[in-house]
Amino acid sequence: MVPALRYLGRVCGRARGGFPGGFSAACEPWLLCQGGRRASTSSFDVVIVGGGIVGLASARALILRHPALSIGVLEKEKDLAVHQTGHNSGVIHSGIYYKPESLKAKLCVQGSALIYEYCTQKGISYKQCGKLIVAVEQEEIPRLQALYERGLQNGVQGLRLIQQEDIKKKEPYCRGLMAIDCPYTGIVNYRQVALSFAQDFQEAGGSVLTNFEVEDIEMAKESPSRSEDGMKYPIIIRNTKGEEVRCQYVVTCAGLYSDRISELSGCNPNPRIVPFRGDYLILKPEKRYLVKGNIYPVPDSRFPFLGVHFTPRMDGSIWLGPNAVLAFKREGYRPFDFSARDIMDTIIKSGLIKLVFQNFSYGVNEMYKACFLSATVKHLQKFIPEITVSDILRSKENVLNKPSWRGKVLF
């Protein structure tokens, strides 16, 4: 269980100073299962830093499997799940893209089934609207066929290769030579899912502390005065207001700040985060009939981004895009959001320069599409020729922020 959490978060271990050369000893399952009685309000057996969907899912899983543990979640905002969890396209992916036998492939295939099951159980609305991955040029067909074989190896259910006539049956206004039909792809409001996780966690006895922005994590050098717990809770987590929480173990799931929080805990901050903002367009309501489900391009492994696609939303809107543009702030959802520290970290500490040199022409094209609406529409017309510039609205918010780790953009 605990090694799996190390994949979900960034750290599962004692704070710096606890064990030399990292904290793998603290991640042994038998150590985590110690604990027992409920701690005081400011002391926990386990603290999870980050109140997004990964942190809340981790907290929920831990407390359901180990109800004797006292577990707290720390979130820097006043509300839960307001950043990456609340700023994404909402697609439930089927697992077709990832390398066979990789953890990412296994988790995506299993996770899609589990999310449908959970939403049904909790009465959370979702739509299993499917997805077409469409080849519009002859040169894309070999890549499409290879992707289909990869999906079969990954165990994705219901996949089939379809020709032009069947594409029209699924998406009457879409043109294409061949497509992969992924019927189990769906859409959901992930913030709603995350808040349901939080409710499960709290009903099981877990604690959530909002407005708690972690500034420092360290090992206590001595027992706090008049403390009945002695050194049972040796890790001190301080926020920007000087308030403290103590714990035995810490799991960090800090999203776009995962590298910095990892460094605070005494672990390696690599790979570094480089934020990319996804700029979406919106199809006018009277033109929504043009799109029924998700329509995606055939991915090209030469480039780090997937390309523009058509994404239906739970509110009935249709998103078009995104263009992937370097953000000047880690949580910068608007074009002119800026943080000097984030920019310096991006330039000095990350793999940005390597990414730029490897994909210079592609990056310039993404910037061009972000500036000129007609350029994006031209790409969209490869799939649905009926779309025109007058059918498009610019989104009032740039809703997607994707991190890049060592020059690889994570979608």
TrEMBL record:
Its cofactor is FAD. It comes from the Eukaryota. SUPFAM superfamilies: FAD/NAD(P)-binding domain. Its EC number is 1.1.99.2. It catalyses: (S)-2-hydroxyglutarate + A = 2-oxoglutarate + AH2. Pfam families: DAO. The keyword Flavoprotein applies. One of its GO terms (molecular function) is (S)-2-hydroxyglutarate dehydrogenase activity. Keywords: FAD, Flavoprotein, Oxidoreductase. Residues 45-337 form the FAD dependent oxidoreductase domain. The keyword Flavoprotein applies. PANTHER family: L-2-HYDROXYGLUTARATE DEHYDROGENASE, MITOCHONDRIAL. Belongs to the L2HGDH family. This is L-2-hydroxyglutarate dehydrogenase, mitochondrial. It comes from Camelus ferus.
